[in-house]
Specification:
Blueprint (H helix, E strand, L loop, with lengths): L7 H9 L5 H19 L2 E3 L2 H17 L10 E4 L24 E2 L33 H8 L5 E6 L5 H7 L2 E4 L19 E6 L2 H11 L29 E5 L9 H16 L3 E5 L7 H16 L18 H12 L2 H14 L5 H21 L5 E5 L15 H6 L5 H6 L3 E8 L5 E7 L5 H14 L10
Helix pairs in contact: 2-3, 6-14, 8-10, 8-11
The chain binds glutamine.
Length: 468
């Protein structure tokens, strides 16, 4: 049997009743990787030997009765998360020689929406190998969709978990800013970054959230708030809930099949007792501009440390120290990362700071207020996750603005610090997956899981498998 196709909760049962071992699951995942990885390219680093060793240790723990929630479940990690003894590349050349942790492909330093800017090759969408899987956590989403792991972790600074999850037909959640520790995550934009799960269904997302949520003294921005048992929110009904639908998210250029799928979602939610109502998030039109000032500004400062001295790659042939910095950064970083560093340095420089970074921070506060006001009137907000289904490899790579616009519906949650989840809502006529997004107020991940699982159960969206 192909155990790699099962979910966390299905596998937990089999591990518990002893009908299956972690070694068997891990072997089936690696068999799958051997047959499809060449086509999909989800991974930068594979660690079969370590994984089988961990599986054996997990089987021992299960036998002894000391297993935790994820014991024995094969999980993939985005290659932005530092791991002991296994290298971390961030999809970049500049960290190449650093020693760090089987890790999935990503846009370089998580800057992108297609996984095309990785120095380690392009990940393909398992549903159509000529298309991108989304990004920047494209490898993490593709690996789950292609059953090359059971679940994975991604990071989301402006949509990088939810957007690839939608484009690959899987579930992805960005938690509230501060819900999950960022300790060990290579920083992109520190006021926006969050780690979160990518899974095959909503229940698995709840299980992963139970494991990764909570306060950590290693990350001063992680919040010491109590973590509920997220599994309790699965299969609760949503009768009498109010679902807000912001008119501003149905912009010109949105794909008609996606629009129709969102309309269908509204019907499903109403059929199970929710009330859907139009709301307004008036500052939505500034989200892209605000994000593309704040994120590059923070990135330019975070990436200053990669100068060839302490981390990874150093260019050779330098004349003096300054020249070494220049040569290292010029050849170590890819074009998109350099674009961001230049944008960020510009908006932070004296004389421009007030006009750009400060102004963007002020508008960011207004965007946050929009959500605060909206949540006085509704429990959750429903939007499409992406304006279009997966685009073709190469289609937007030379057009940064078009690329930036593919996150138009996800950036706002990061700017406001609120949680968001993308759930599959069907397929286009040509067979590409689509996703809807739910957003809730700070620390209301439980509500997101509740509505997402109610929707998943009642939407009659069939669970297809990509043919590979
Ligand atoms: N695509 C957005 C960007 O390029 C978001 C990336 C992310 O969430 N890491 O910045």
């Amino acid at each position: 049997m192909e155990f790699n196709r099962l979910t966390i909760h299905e596998l937990q049962e089999k591990l518990r009743d002893g009908s299956l071992t972690s070694v068997e699951i891990t072997e089936s995942v690696y068999q799958r990787i051997a047959s499809v990885e060449e086509k999909v390219h989800s991974y930068i680093t594979l660690m079969e030997e370590t994984a089988i060793g961990q599986a054996r240790a997990a089987d021992r723990r299960i036998k002894e009765g000391t297993a935790g929630e994820l014991t024995g479940i094969p999980i993939a990690l985005k290659d932005i998360l530092c791991t002991e003894g296994v290298r971390t590349t961030c999809g970049s050349h500049i960290l190449e020689n650093a020693v760090f942790v089987g890790k999935t492909n990503m846009d370089e330093f998580a800057m992108g929406s297609s996984t095309e800017t990785s120095r380690f090759g392009i990940t393909k969408n398992p549903w159509d190998l000529e298309r991108i899987p989304g990004g920047s956590s494209g490898g993490s989403a593709a690996a789950v969709a292609a059953d090359e792991c059971i679940a994975s972790l991604g990071t989301d600074t402006g949509g990088s978990i939810r957007q690839p999850a939608a484009l690959c037909g899987v579930v992805g959640m960005k938690p509230t800013y501060g819900r999950v520790s960022r300790f060990g995550m290579v920083a992109f934009a520190s006021s926006l970054d969050q780690i979160g799960p990518i899974t095959k269904d909503v229940e698995d997302c709840a299980i992963m959230m139970n494991v990764i949520s909570g306060h950590d003294t290693g990350d001063s921005t992680s919040v010491p708030a109590e973590v509920p048992d997220y599994k309790k929110f699965i299969s609760r009904d949503i009768r009498n809930w109010t679902v807000g639908i912001p008119g501003e998210y149905f912009v010109e250029g949105i794909d008609l099949e996606i629009k129709a799928a969102v309309d269908q979602t509204v019907n499903t939610l109403e059929a199970i007792g929710a009330k859907c109502t139009r709301i307004s998030l008036p500052h939505t039109e500034y989200c892209v501009a605000v994000y593309y000032i704040i994120a590059p500004s923070e990135a330019s400062s975070n990436l200053a440390r990669y100068d060839g001295v302490r981390y990874g790659f150093r260019a050779t042939g330098e004349e003096d120290l300054l020249d070494m910095y220049k040569k290292t950064r010029s050849s170590g970083f890819g074009a998109e990362v350099k674009r961001r560093i230049m944008l960020g340095t510009y908006s932070l420089s004296s004389g421009y700071y007030d006009a750009y970074y400060k102004k963007a921070s002020q508008v960011r506060a207004l965007i946050r207020d929009d959500f605060n006001n909206a949540f006085k009137r509704c429990d959750v907000i429903l939007t499409p996750t992406t304006p279009t289904p997966a685009f073709r490899v190469g289609e937007k790579v030379d057009d940064p603005l078009q690329m930036y616009l593919s996150d138009i519906f996800t950036l706002s949650a990061n700017l406001a610090g609120i949680p968001g989840i993308s759930v599959p809502c069907g397929y286009t006529k040509s067979g590409l997956p689509m996703g809807v997004q739910f957003m809730a107020n700070h620390f209301e991940e439980g509500k997101l899981l509740q509505i997402a699982s109610a929707y998943e159960k009642n939407s009659k969206v069939e669970r297809r498998m990509p043919e590979l």
